[in-house]
Write a structure and sequence with these properties.
Number of helices: 14
Structural class: alpha/beta
Largest sheet: 7 strands, mixed
């Protein structure tokens, strides 16, 4: 972004065609202000190619506009569907999901398709959970108490995510309007274990690069899938494990392929980042100021793979009930089972990363891709110790990215008073713009109000309180989030006709592995429509066990996930939570 104004400029004076970001600690006592063409390098950043709002290349505009509406590459055209109803399910092309018009918040008016104009179009990724599956701290052994605590497909998160990038790169625009896609936003849990190794993989998946999804011994895999333990799928061996008893295949060479180098082309669009609990907290649950023993164990040479089911159940209960937010109980659990641990190759790259490390990775020019610099974050975030910001989406729309993780520990979220006030002020000072709010947590999962160890005197606020702030602003269109790994679209109605939609999207770790295109249109009849269209990765629906190429692994990733024991079969949601037109009164 150009450096032409003081960071003390009022947010109401935002250049409507520049990118906003949380900036200089000058404007607010919270330590986060508004980037308005800032005067110094601490403030906001913009896409490197222009001071304009980031948009797809102009050559994409004309091609897409002539095709709209279109379905190719979306779940409107086809969805991966099991070919058989029992046993291990093989996938194939199935019928697409139709679009559902929802009018709970405003009546859809006839003729709107011929009148509407596009306000913005973008893609949401969420819950990629890129996993270092050989990490010593992982809880795979909890599978003894809960089958879904470990998934047979987890070694393939990187090729799976790259295939999702390839799908977005192949899109010719937004499916309803044909408008260029402005950007991709990933709404948290980009990594899984809060490990440096995973953070590097995430940045390269999104911006491009070569990735070796391996840690420890560079020559071979060391983890639960070659342990010989029947608790886990042993793909390379003939061991009759519990997953093979359910029809999982014997795939010689699977583990060698899973840790082989993968190449990501990187997104051909600008992309923005929102933080999730798995990005901010070790294992997504233990406080950022937790027990130092866990940080040492993360890079060490011992890994626990098997515990009695009764012990696994007790630990699982402590995680779900948040009775061990700092990880002290987990430390004691690991020490108590030290004799059961197996030797693995130590690796410094598995060390947990801090909030500062996360921001620096986004600001690193090596990971700039198609921009913007910092992917929403700025050096001002680094100075202030914050991970929330706002940005200009288009002429009439701003985006607001919240940090809903609770540094005090546990996987559910909340926000502090400073951030809640900043949110309210940002909306007030941009009252002439429509707003889309992004976060990791849903309104229902923001019920964890432990104090932030770095700000012990600051109150934490729930999702209900965030809803109250959003409901006070008539031009909020949508709150887009993830965390629950399920497609759910919820209408929120407030007094005075104010209303907006909460759009929660399924993860890319649990089947059916979805992302979402979101289009905003002015219907020119007193209403606005928010269109949602789900997409799968570019990998073929049918799998070939002999194909262990990068593409073949991405296809296998989806099919293994479809068959994961204990998996929730309802995560795709109902028809009204998938491909939709969500109608609102114009604010």
């Amino acid at each position: 972004m150009s450096r032409s104004r003081s960071v003390t400029t009022s947010a109401s004076e935002v250049n409507r065609r520049t990118v906003l970001a949380a900036a200089g600690a000058v404007s607010l006592s919270a330590g986060v202000g508004y980037a308005v063409r800032p005067a110094d390098s601490r403030a906001a950043t913009t896409a490197t190619s222009s001071a304009e709002a980031p948009v797809a290349a102009s050559r994409r505009v004309s091609a897409a506009a002539s095709l709209a509406p279109y379905t190719k590459g979306t779940t409107l055209a086809s969805v991966a569907t099991p070919r058989n109803s029992s046993g291990y399910r093989r996938l194939a092309d199935g019928p697409g999901w139709q679009r559902v018009v929802r009018g709970e918040l405003a009546a859809p008016r006839s003729g709107r398709a011929g009148r509407r104009t596009t306000l913005a179009a973008f893609v949401q990724f969420t819950d990629l959970h890129l996993m270092d599956v050989q990490h010593p701290l992982r809880w795979e052994f909890l599978r003894a108490a809960d089958q879904h605590s470990w998934r047979p497909h987890e070694a393939l998160t990187v090729p799976g995510a790259v295939s999702l990038v390839e799908r977005v790169n192949a899109l010719r625009g937004a499916p309803v309007t044909g408008a260029p896609l402005h950007f991709v936003m990933t709404t948290g849990d980009n990594t899984d274990n809060n490990a440096h190794s995973e953070l590097e993989w995430f940045m390269k998946v999104m911006s491009g690069g070569r990735i070796s999804p391996n840690s420890g011994d560079p020559r071979h895999y060391e983890g639960v899938q070659n342990s010989g333990l029947k608790l886990y799928w042993q793909p390379d061996s003939t061991t009759r494990d519990g997953d093979k008893a359910l029809g999982f295949p014997h795939l010689q060479g699977f583990l060698a392929a899973a840790i082989r180098e993968v190449r990501s082309p990187g997104l051909n669009l600008p992309w923005y980042s929102t933080v999730g609990n798995h990005d901010a907290l070790p294992l997504g649950a233990y406080g950022s100021h937790g027990d130092p023993y866990l940080a040492e164990a993360a890079i060490g040479g011992k890994k626990l793979m098997d515990v009695p089911a009764a012990d696994a159940k007790k630990l699982l209960e402590s995680i779900n009930n948040a009775t061990d937010p700092k990880g002290v109980g987990y430390r004691d659990f690991l020490k108590a089972h030290a004799r059961s641990m197996r030797s693995v190759t130590p690796d410094e790259r598995r060390a947990p990363y801090t909030q500062g490390d996360y921001l620096k990775a986004h600001l690193d020019p090596a990971h700039q891709g198609h921009g913007p610099v910092g992917h929403g974050y700025s050096s001002a975030n680094l100075d202030a110790g914050t991970q929330y910001y706002a940005f200009r989406v288009s002429e009439d729309v701003i985006g607001i990215s919240l940090d809903t993780t609770d540094p005090g520990g546990h996987y559910n979220g909340s926000i502090g008073t400073a951030q809640l006030r900043w949110l309210d002020r940002t909306l007030k000072d941009n009252k002439d713009s429509y707003a889309v709010v992004f976060s990791h947590h849903t309104s229902d999962s923001m019920n964890n109000t432990r104090p932030d160890p770095a700000r012990p005197g600051e109150k934490r606020h729930t999702g209900a309180e965030v809803l109250s702030v959003l409901s006070a602003h008539p031009r909020v269109l949508a709150w887009v989030n993830g965390h629950v790994h399920r497609n759910v679209i919820t209408p929120h109605q407030a007094f005075g006709g104010r209303s907006f939609w909460e759009i929660s999207t399924a993860s890319h770790i649990d089947y059916p592995h979805l992302a979402r295109i979101i289009e905003l249109t002015d219907n020119k009849d007193g209403t606005v429509s928010v269109f949602t269209t789900l997409i799968e990765s570019a990998a073929p629906h049918r799998t070939d066990y002999a194909d262990l190429s990068q593409t073949g692994l991405a296809a296998l990733y989806r099919e293994l996930a479809c068959n994961a024991p204990g998996a929730n079969k309802t995560l795709a949601g109902g028809p009204a939570d998938r491909n939709t037109e969500l109608v609102l009164k114009k604010g």
